[in-house]
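## Example pair
The file below holds two records. Each record gives the amino-acid sequence first, followed by its structure token line.
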Amino acid sequence: MNTTWQIGGETVYRGGGHVMDGKTIVGEPVDEEGVLGRVRASSDGNCRGAVEGENRMQALWLFSSDACGVYGYRRVKIEHAGRTSPLGEITLKTERGDINIRGGSGMLLRVNNPSAADGT
């Protein structure tokens, strides 16, 4: 069995195990790198879990089911997540200087139903 850790802290027990948050099963490994899990709200309440009852298993790649925010970039935060106007536009902000997002960086984006976003 091979054990890996997701961005956000969950543990993946590959080769017959599960994706775990402590002692709670939160997903399943699907290949050498990916996992399936149900998106969960972050413990600090800053990021949503299931949206509009959509609680199916989803591909989370290298991320924990409750991963939220920016990892690996000190002093960088999400200023605008794209949930409000301008819809779909994400803005990152740093305390000082420019932001250099390096090649090979990854994002886990959630796509909402466009008609649900504008209330129609």
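Second record, same layout:
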Amino acid sequence: MCLPLFSHKSYIVVPPRHPRTIWRGSTLSARIFGIGLILFDPKKPDDPKFEIRVRAAKHEPDMFYVNRYMKLIEDELFT
């Protein structure tokens, strides 16, 4: 039995409160690691104006680690 312990795509959703130089570095890091980056306006909950800065890359989980960690936690999950 295999439980979904990992995601194929991951996004970070944050408000754009930091200086532009920090976002430039964050955008680069997100692209390197394949993590999506989305900005939004927290002051407008009805219309947050989501802006996708970086789209997440799809990654398949490494089944070696899925099985390894599953063995570590299966007693907690199924008892």
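Notes on the second record: The mean pLDDT is 79. Strands lie at 11-14, 36-39, 51-54.
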